[in-house]
């Protein structure tokens, strides 16, 4: 595998690129460094004409436990909340505008922003031990990577609101029944299954694959784009609220937060 700073690895298997999150000891929590590496790799791959499909996976027991909370709300000097959100949303758009299919392998923890981003990829396969959730409200913020829009498309408003408002955990079999994933396989078969799927896609006529995806994207992506813009503004406002400051203070003091709705 190519070393891209250790936290994210990339490999090639014929026409298939394999991108692996590589913080197994942290269940692949995504901090700023890992995020930069991951999207830098995608940016390179999207212009590589020899890549016909991408596998996205995680090393260790989990796909990703979501955002590294150590980086939550931390800003470099001179960088505003809106700057951070705008940059993050440009990266998120790269996923659902990616020129070739992305097949995502979900296992262990699949949480928060990384769950949302996985929902923007073409195909999702879950290992039997996968557990998915949107815990953002518990951290004083909102979902902001258009995952709720995808859940709305998959199962309607009840599903989207259930997962976003309660943060409850969804296992692999329930995710299959709800249409969140297309297959569930044993943990030991996950990598082989997604690689086989990616190779099957890569063996098809590339232009025909592109047209099929463009037909689906024309139906699915406009609401996702509009949602992403609303989330960017809303999350920027949330970062400025007293309630967000209270969440951080409560976490530091190891107590329950006392929200006032302001």
Fourth-tier CATH superfamily name: 2-enoyl-CoA Hydratase, Chain A, domain 1
**Helix/strand/pairing category:** alpha/beta
Biggest beta sheet attributes: 7 strands, mixed
Quote the distance from N terminus to C terminus: 48 Å
- Counting structural domains, the number is 1
What is the name of the CATH architecture? Alpha-Beta Complex
Shape: globular
Q: Which whole number gives the mean pLDDT?
A: 92
- Helical region count? 9
Poorly predicted segments: none
Classified by CATH, the class is: Alpha Beta
Number of strands: 10
As a percent range, the share of helical residues equals 40-55%
Which strand-content bin applies to the residues?
A: 15-25%
What's the Cα radius of gyration?
18 Å
Topology pattern, helix = H, strand = E: EEEHEHEEHEEHHEHEHHH
Spatial sequence of strands, sheet with the most strands? 1-2-3-4-5-7-10
CATH topology: 2-enoyl-CoA Hydratase, Chain A, domain 1
Question: Could you describe the 3D structure shown?
Answer:
With 262 residues, the protein is of the alpha/beta class. The protein has one domain: 2-enoyl-CoA Hydratase, Chain A, domain 1 (Alpha-Beta Complex). The protein is built from nine helices and ten strands. A seven-stranded mixed β-sheet has the order 1-2-3-4-5-7-10, with helices on both faces. A three-stranded mixed β-sheet has the order 6-8-9. Strand 3, helix 1 (32-45) and strand 4 (53-58) form a beta-alpha-beta unit. Helix 2 packs antiparallel against helix 8, helix 3 packs across helix 4 (147-155) and helix 4 (147-155) crosses helix 5. The termini are far apart.
């Amino acid at each position: 595998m190519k070393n891209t700073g250790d936290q994210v690895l990339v490999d090639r298997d014929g026409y298939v690129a394999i991108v692996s999150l590589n913080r197994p000891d942290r269940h692949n929590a995504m901090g700023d460094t890992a995020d930069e590496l991951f999207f830098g790799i995608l940016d390179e791959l999207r212009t590589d004409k020899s890549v016909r499909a991408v596998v996205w996976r995680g090393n260790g027991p989990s796909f990703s436990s979501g955002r590294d909370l150590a980086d939550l709300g931390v800003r470099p000097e001179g960088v505003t909340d809106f700057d951070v959100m705008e940059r993050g949303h440009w990266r998120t758009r790269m996923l659902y505008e990616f020129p070739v299919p992305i097949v995502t392998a979900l296992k262990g923890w699949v949480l928060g922003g990384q769950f949302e981003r996985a929902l923007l990829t073409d195909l999702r396969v879950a290992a039997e031990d996968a557990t998915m959730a949107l815990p953002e409200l518990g951290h004083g913020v909102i979902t902001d990577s258009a995952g709720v829009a995808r859940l709305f498309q998959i199962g309607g408003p009840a599903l989207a609101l259930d997962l976003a408002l309660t943060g409850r955990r969804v296992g692999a079999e329930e995710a299959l029944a709800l249409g969140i994933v297309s297959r569930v396989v044993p943990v030991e078969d996950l990598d082989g299954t997604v690689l086989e799927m990616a190779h099957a896609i890569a063996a098809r006529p590339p232009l025909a694959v592109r047209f099929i995806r463009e037909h689906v994207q024309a139906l699915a992506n406009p609401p996702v784009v509009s949602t992403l813009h609303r989330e960017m503004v809303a999350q920027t406002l949330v970062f400025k609220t007293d309630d967000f400051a209270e969440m951080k203070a409560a976490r530091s003091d190891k107590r329950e937060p006392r929200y006032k709705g302001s």
